[in-house]
From TrEMBL:
It comes from Agrococcus jenensis. It comes from the Bacteria. Residues 63-333 form the Fe/B12 periplasmic-binding domain. Belongs to the bacterial solute-binding protein 8 family. PROSITE patterns: FE_B12_PBP, PROKAR_LIPOPROTEIN. Gene3D superfamilies: Nitrogenase molybdenum iron protein domain. This is Iron complex transport system substrate-binding protein.
Protein backbone atom coordinates (compact mmCIF):
# COMPACT_ATOMS: atom_id res chain seq x y z
CA UNK A 1 0.00 0.00 0.00
CA UNK A 2 2.67 2.31 0.71
CA UNK A 3 5.72 1.21 -1.13
CA UNK A 4 6.35 4.30 -3.14
CA UNK A 5 3.16 4.95 -4.91
CA UNK A 6 0.76 5.57 -2.21
CA UNK A 7 1.22 5.86 1.45
CA UNK A 8 0.78 2.40 2.64
CA UNK A 9 -1.17 2.49 5.72
CA UNK A 10 0.91 1.93 8.72
CA UNK A 11 2.83 -1.13 8.40
CA UNK A 12 1.75 -2.94 5.40
CA UNK A 13 -1.13 -1.81 3.53
CA UNK A 14 -4.03 -3.85 2.57
CA UNK A 15 -6.48 -2.85 -0.01
CA UNK A 16 -9.68 -2.54 1.80
CA UNK A 17 -8.70 -4.51 4.76
CA UNK A 18 -5.55 -3.45 6.46
CA UNK A 19 -3.07 -6.01 7.41
CA UNK A 20 -0.87 -4.15 9.71
CA UNK A 21 2.50 -5.66 9.39
CA UNK A 22 4.86 -5.50 12.14
CA UNK A 23 7.11 -7.64 14.06
CA UNK A 24 8.99 -6.90 17.09
CA UNK A 25 11.59 -8.47 19.16
CA UNK A 26 13.20 -7.62 22.39
CA UNK A 27 16.78 -7.88 23.32
CA UNK A 28 18.60 -8.41 26.53
CA UNK A 29 21.93 -6.74 25.88
CA UNK A 30 22.75 -4.62 28.90
CA UNK A 31 25.19 -1.73 28.52
CA UNK A 32 27.11 -0.20 31.42
CA UNK A 33 25.20 2.54 33.18
CA UNK A 34 27.68 5.16 32.13
CA UNK A 35 27.03 4.45 28.45
CA UNK A 36 23.26 4.34 28.72
CA UNK A 37 21.20 6.47 26.38
CA UNK A 38 19.82 9.72 27.80
CA UNK A 39 16.69 8.96 29.79
CA UNK A 40 17.21 5.20 29.57
CA UNK A 41 15.57 3.25 32.36
CA UNK A 42 18.07 2.08 34.96
CA UNK A 43 15.92 -0.94 35.75
CA UNK A 44 14.48 -3.79 33.71
CA UNK A 45 10.71 -3.57 33.23
CA UNK A 46 7.96 -5.94 32.17
CA UNK A 47 5.32 -4.42 29.90
CA UNK A 48 2.18 -5.88 28.36
CA UNK A 49 2.07 -5.14 24.64
CA UNK A 50 -0.79 -5.03 22.13
CA UNK A 51 -0.79 -8.81 21.83
CA UNK A 52 -1.47 -9.13 25.54
CA UNK A 53 2.02 -10.60 25.91
CA UNK A 54 4.23 -9.66 28.85
CA UNK A 55 7.52 -8.45 27.41
CA UNK A 56 10.61 -8.27 29.61
CA UNK A 57 12.57 -5.16 28.65
CA UNK A 58 16.21 -5.00 29.78
CA UNK A 59 17.57 -2.03 31.72
CA UNK A 60 19.21 0.84 29.84
CA UNK A 61 17.85 0.06 26.40
CA UNK A 62 19.99 1.77 23.78
CA UNK A 63 19.94 -0.13 20.50
CA UNK A 64 16.41 -0.47 19.17
CA UNK A 65 15.14 -1.64 15.78
CA UNK A 66 11.82 -0.21 14.50
CA UNK A 67 9.88 -2.17 11.90
CA UNK A 68 7.08 0.35 11.43
CA UNK A 69 7.39 4.06 10.74
CA UNK A 70 5.14 5.18 13.60
CA UNK A 71 7.43 3.24 15.93
CA UNK A 72 10.40 5.16 14.53
CA UNK A 73 8.73 8.45 15.37
CA UNK A 74 7.67 7.31 18.85
CA UNK A 75 11.22 6.21 19.64
CA UNK A 76 12.66 9.51 18.48
CA UNK A 77 10.16 11.44 20.59
CA UNK A 78 11.12 9.26 23.58
CA UNK A 79 14.77 10.19 23.05
CA UNK A 80 16.08 6.89 21.67
CA UNK A 81 16.38 7.05 17.86
CA UNK A 82 16.42 3.52 16.40
CA UNK A 83 19.65 2.01 15.08
CA UNK A 84 17.69 -0.03 12.54
CA UNK A 85 14.66 1.03 10.49
CA UNK A 86 12.55 -0.87 7.98
CA UNK A 87 12.66 0.86 4.57
CA UNK A 88 14.75 3.92 5.33
CA UNK A 89 14.18 5.39 1.85
CA UNK A 90 10.42 4.96 2.19
CA UNK A 91 10.47 6.64 5.59
CA UNK A 92 12.36 9.58 4.13
CA UNK A 93 9.80 9.94 1.32
CA UNK A 94 6.65 9.49 3.35
CA UNK A 95 7.58 10.75 6.82
CA UNK A 96 10.77 12.74 6.46
CA UNK A 97 9.12 16.17 6.58
CA UNK A 98 6.78 15.66 9.52
CA UNK A 99 9.20 13.64 11.65
CA UNK A 100 12.70 13.75 10.09
CA UNK A 101 14.83 10.67 10.61
CA UNK A 102 17.48 11.15 13.29
CA UNK A 103 20.94 9.70 12.91
CA UNK A 104 21.87 7.20 10.21
CA UNK A 105 20.00 3.98 11.03
CA UNK A 106 20.71 0.77 9.17
CA UNK A 107 18.06 -0.32 6.69
CA UNK A 108 16.68 -3.69 7.81
CA UNK A 109 14.52 -4.53 4.80
CA UNK A 110 10.90 -3.70 4.11
CA UNK A 111 8.10 -3.32 6.60
CA UNK A 112 6.37 -6.31 5.07
CA UNK A 113 9.48 -8.49 4.91
CA UNK A 114 12.15 -7.26 7.30
CA UNK A 115 15.57 -8.91 7.08
CA UNK A 116 16.17 -11.20 10.03
CA UNK A 117 19.89 -11.28 9.23
CA UNK A 118 20.15 -7.48 9.12
CA UNK A 119 18.29 -7.16 12.42
CA UNK A 120 20.39 -9.84 14.10
CA UNK A 121 23.56 -8.13 12.87
CA UNK A 122 22.65 -5.05 14.91
CA UNK A 123 22.30 -7.09 18.12
CA UNK A 124 19.44 -4.85 19.32
CA UNK A 125 18.23 -4.57 22.89
CA UNK A 126 14.66 -4.26 21.66
CA UNK A 127 12.57 -4.53 18.49
CA UNK A 128 9.40 -2.47 18.15
CA UNK A 129 6.61 -3.07 15.63
CA UNK A 130 2.81 -3.00 15.36
CA UNK A 131 0.07 -5.61 15.25
CA UNK A 132 -0.29 -7.63 12.07
CA UNK A 133 2.34 -10.35 11.92
CA UNK A 134 1.74 -14.01 12.70
CA UNK A 135 3.18 -15.95 15.62
CA UNK A 136 5.98 -17.43 13.51
CA UNK A 137 7.18 -14.00 12.45
CA UNK A 138 7.24 -12.80 16.04
CA UNK A 139 9.09 -15.95 17.08
CA UNK A 140 11.83 -15.29 14.51
CA UNK A 141 12.30 -11.82 15.93
CA UNK A 142 12.14 -12.95 19.55
CA UNK A 143 15.05 -15.27 18.83
CA UNK A 144 17.09 -12.09 18.42
CA UNK A 145 15.73 -9.86 21.17
CA UNK A 146 12.51 -9.02 23.08
CA UNK A 147 9.60 -7.84 20.87
CA UNK A 148 7.31 -4.97 21.80
CA UNK A 149 4.20 -4.90 19.61
CA UNK A 150 2.21 -1.67 19.46
CA UNK A 151 -1.50 -1.45 18.66
CA UNK A 152 -0.76 0.84 15.73
CA UNK A 153 -4.34 2.02 15.39
CA UNK A 154 -7.84 1.47 16.73
CA UNK A 155 -10.87 3.07 15.11
CA UNK A 156 -12.61 3.08 18.49
CA UNK A 157 -10.11 5.63 19.86
CA UNK A 158 -7.50 6.77 17.33
CA UNK A 159 -5.98 9.64 19.34
CA UNK A 160 -5.99 7.65 22.56
CA UNK A 161 -4.27 4.77 20.77
CA UNK A 162 -1.60 7.09 19.40
CA UNK A 163 -0.92 8.33 22.94
CA UNK A 164 -0.97 4.82 24.41
CA UNK A 165 1.57 3.53 21.88
CA UNK A 166 3.83 6.51 22.49
CA UNK A 167 3.63 6.05 26.25
CA UNK A 168 4.34 2.33 25.95
CA UNK A 169 7.49 3.10 23.96
CA UNK A 170 8.44 5.74 26.51
CA UNK A 171 8.16 3.19 29.33
CA UNK A 172 10.23 0.68 27.39
CA UNK A 173 13.17 3.02 26.82
CA UNK A 174 12.97 5.23 29.90
CA UNK A 175 11.64 8.23 28.01
CA UNK A 176 8.44 8.87 29.95
CA UNK A 177 9.24 12.52 30.69
CA UNK A 178 10.03 13.31 27.06
CA UNK A 179 6.84 11.57 25.96
CA UNK A 180 4.62 13.49 28.38
CA UNK A 181 6.25 16.75 27.33
CA UNK A 182 5.53 15.95 23.68
CA UNK A 183 1.88 15.06 24.36
CA UNK A 184 1.37 18.25 26.36
CA UNK A 185 2.92 20.31 23.56
CA UNK A 186 0.71 18.61 20.96
CA UNK A 187 -2.47 19.28 22.92
CA UNK A 188 -1.48 22.92 23.43
CA UNK A 189 -0.90 23.27 19.69
CA UNK A 190 -4.31 21.75 18.99
CA UNK A 191 -5.88 24.47 21.13
CA UNK A 192 -3.95 27.15 19.24
CA UNK A 193 -5.02 25.76 15.88
CA UNK A 194 -8.63 25.54 17.04
CA UNK A 195 -8.55 29.27 17.66
CA UNK A 196 -6.95 29.87 14.27
CA UNK A 197 -9.60 27.80 12.51
CA UNK A 198 -12.37 29.68 14.29
CA UNK A 199 -10.85 33.07 13.49
CA UNK A 200 -10.60 32.08 9.83
CA UNK A 201 -14.29 31.17 9.75
CA UNK A 202 -13.48 27.53 8.97
CA UNK A 203 -15.04 25.85 12.00
CA UNK A 204 -17.51 23.19 10.83
CA UNK A 205 -16.01 22.92 7.34
CA UNK A 206 -16.36 19.32 6.08
CA UNK A 207 -13.16 17.64 4.90
CA UNK A 208 -12.70 14.31 3.15
CA UNK A 209 -9.13 13.05 3.32
CA UNK A 210 -8.41 10.29 0.84
CA UNK A 211 -5.64 8.49 -0.98
CA UNK A 212 -5.89 7.91 -4.71
CA UNK A 213 -4.03 5.31 -6.68
CA UNK A 214 -4.16 3.40 -9.93
CA UNK A 215 -4.70 -0.34 -9.86
CA UNK A 216 -4.80 -2.24 -13.14
CA UNK A 217 -5.71 0.86 -15.08
CA UNK A 218 -8.53 1.74 -12.68
CA UNK A 219 -8.47 4.54 -10.14
CA UNK A 220 -9.22 3.45 -6.60
CA UNK A 221 -9.86 5.76 -3.68
CA UNK A 222 -9.08 5.04 -0.04
CA UNK A 223 -11.12 7.46 2.12
CA UNK A 224 -10.41 8.06 5.80
CA UNK A 225 -13.70 7.36 7.56
CA UNK A 226 -14.76 8.11 11.12
CA UNK A 227 -12.34 6.25 13.37
CA UNK A 228 -9.29 6.99 11.25
CA UNK A 229 -6.54 9.04 12.87
CA UNK A 230 -6.65 11.96 10.43
CA UNK A 231 -10.36 12.82 10.87
CA UNK A 232 -9.95 12.49 14.63
CA UNK A 233 -7.07 14.97 14.44
CA UNK A 234 -8.75 17.54 12.22
CA UNK A 235 -12.04 17.28 14.10
CA UNK A 236 -10.11 18.22 17.26
CA UNK A 237 -9.39 21.66 15.75
CA UNK A 238 -12.90 22.35 14.48
CA UNK A 239 -13.32 20.67 11.09
CA UNK A 240 -15.79 17.82 10.50
CA UNK A 241 -15.36 14.62 8.55
CA UNK A 242 -17.19 14.89 5.25
CA UNK A 243 -16.76 11.26 4.19
CA UNK A 244 -20.05 9.43 4.87
CA UNK A 245 -18.82 5.87 4.42
CA UNK A 246 -17.45 3.37 6.91
CA UNK A 247 -13.91 2.14 7.42
CA UNK A 248 -12.22 -0.92 8.88
CA UNK A 249 -12.13 -1.53 12.62
CA UNK A 250 -8.42 -0.87 13.10
CA UNK A 251 -7.41 2.01 10.84
CA UNK A 252 -10.81 3.42 9.90
CA UNK A 253 -10.02 3.20 6.19
CA UNK A 254 -12.55 2.51 3.46
CA UNK A 255 -12.37 1.91 -0.25
CA UNK A 256 -14.42 3.33 -3.11
CA UNK A 257 -14.26 4.23 -6.77
CA UNK A 258 -14.71 7.54 -8.54
CA UNK A 259 -18.49 7.09 -8.65
CA UNK A 260 -18.45 6.79 -4.87
CA UNK A 261 -17.21 10.37 -4.59
CA UNK A 262 -20.64 11.58 -5.66
CA UNK A 263 -21.67 10.86 -2.04
CA UNK A 264 -19.72 13.94 -0.95
CA UNK A 265 -21.97 16.84 -0.02
CA UNK A 266 -21.50 20.21 -1.62
CA UNK A 267 -19.03 22.31 0.35
CA UNK A 268 -16.83 19.36 1.28
CA UNK A 269 -13.13 19.85 0.67
CA UNK A 270 -11.11 16.91 -0.68
CA UNK A 271 -7.68 16.68 0.93
CA UNK A 272 -4.93 14.27 -0.08
CA UNK A 273 -1.21 13.65 0.01
CA UNK A 274 1.12 11.69 -2.21
CA UNK A 275 4.83 11.58 -2.94
CA UNK A 276 6.59 12.81 -6.03
CA UNK A 277 4.94 13.16 -9.42
CA UNK A 278 2.36 10.36 -9.19
CA UNK A 279 -0.89 12.19 -8.56
CA UNK A 280 -4.10 10.56 -9.74
CA UNK A 281 -6.15 13.60 -8.76
CA UNK A 282 -4.39 15.89 -11.22
CA UNK A 283 -3.51 13.21 -13.77
CA UNK A 284 -5.83 10.21 -14.25
CA UNK A 285 -8.88 11.97 -12.81
CA UNK A 286 -8.34 15.18 -14.76
CA UNK A 287 -10.19 13.67 -17.74
CA UNK A 288 -12.82 11.80 -15.72
CA UNK A 289 -16.18 13.51 -16.22
CA UNK A 290 -17.65 12.17 -12.98
CA UNK A 291 -14.77 13.61 -10.98
CA UNK A 292 -14.49 16.93 -12.79
CA UNK A 293 -18.23 17.56 -12.37
CA UNK A 294 -18.17 17.07 -8.61
CA UNK A 295 -19.27 20.32 -6.90
CA UNK A 296 -16.17 20.29 -4.70
CA UNK A 297 -13.92 19.98 -7.75
CA UNK A 298 -15.83 22.65 -9.62
CA UNK A 299 -15.37 24.95 -6.64
CA UNK A 300 -11.63 24.34 -6.54
CA UNK A 301 -11.84 22.70 -3.12
CA UNK A 302 -9.25 19.98 -3.73
CA UNK A 303 -6.02 20.34 -1.79
CA UNK A 304 -2.76 18.41 -2.05
CA UNK A 305 -0.78 18.67 1.16
CA UNK A 306 3.04 18.77 1.22
CA UNK A 307 4.97 15.54 0.75
CA UNK A 308 6.60 13.74 3.64
CA UNK A 309 3.95 13.77 6.36
CA UNK A 310 3.16 10.25 7.57
CA UNK A 311 -0.59 9.91 7.85
CA UNK A 312 -0.38 7.09 10.41
CA UNK A 313 2.30 8.63 12.60
CA UNK A 314 2.52 10.15 16.05
CA UNK A 315 2.30 13.59 17.62
CA UNK A 316 4.98 15.13 15.40
CA UNK A 317 3.36 13.86 12.21
CA UNK A 318 -0.09 14.99 13.34
CA UNK A 319 1.27 18.42 14.24
CA UNK A 320 2.77 18.77 10.75
CA UNK A 321 -0.46 17.47 9.18
CA UNK A 322 -2.71 19.90 11.01
CA UNK A 323 -0.39 22.82 10.29
CA UNK A 324 -0.39 21.93 6.58
CA UNK A 325 -4.17 21.51 6.58
CA UNK A 326 -4.83 24.89 8.16
CA UNK A 327 -2.40 26.56 5.78
CA UNK A 328 -4.05 24.94 2.76
CA UNK A 329 -7.59 25.95 3.71
CA UNK A 330 -6.98 29.38 5.19
CA UNK A 331 -8.11 32.24 3.00
CA UNK A 332 -5.32 34.03 1.18
CA UNK A 333 -4.39 37.33 2.86
Amino acid sequence: MSQRILPARPVLAGVAVLTALALAACGTTEAPAESAAPGASSEAVTLTDARGVEVEIPAEVEDVVALEWAAVEHLQVAGVPPVGVADVAGYTDWSGTGAPLEGEPTDVGTRIEPSIDAIAGLAPDLIVTVLGADDAAYADLEAIAPVLVLQGADAADPIGTMYADLRLVGEAVGGQDAVETAITAYEAHVEELSATVEEAGLTGTPLAHMDGYENGGQVEIRPYADGALLPAAFESIGFVNGWPGEGDAQYGLGVTDVEGLTALEEGTHIVYMTVGERDVFTQQLASNAIYTELPTVQAGNVHRLPDGIWLFGGVESMTAYLDALVAALSPAP
